[in-house]
Amino acid sequence: MQQKNIIGSVQPHTTQMPNKKHKIVIADDDLAILDAMKMMLELYGFEVETVSDGMVISKLLSHQPKLLLLDVYMSGLDGRDICRAIKKTAATKDIPVIMISASSNMKDALKDSGADDYLPKPFDIEELLHKLNKYLLN
Description:
The chain is α/β, with parallel strands linked by helices. The protein contains five helices and seven strands. The protein has one domain (23-136): 3-Layer(aba) Sandwich (Rossmann fold). The strands form two sheets. Strands 2-1-3-6-7 form a five-stranded parallel sheet, with helices on both faces. A two-stranded antiparallel ribbon has the order 4-5. It starts with 22 loop residues before the first strand and ends with a helix.
């Protein structure tokens, strides 16, 4: 029996859309990464909002996404601190947070911050889609 997922049978480089749009917020201080991730995920049918500064919690409150992709190191801000605040805020604590970073100590950041998962940079689109399936189907 084939496992159902939010992207169906989407293969890399196709534009087949999922049946249901899922809203995702991406927080990263690198505008090129934000633009690339937004464009890529929108091709797969996701609704994507981006934030490049510490206003992540207000973006979560105003857009009510199903998931947050959060960079660990954002220009003067620590994504781990932002994640801790998200997980302590009643309105945002249940939003899955996947931390993204080029840092090699992500497991420690994950454990200390309360994040649900992590994704090392650079990442493969298939790995990202796998993690999105994992958290958006729950």
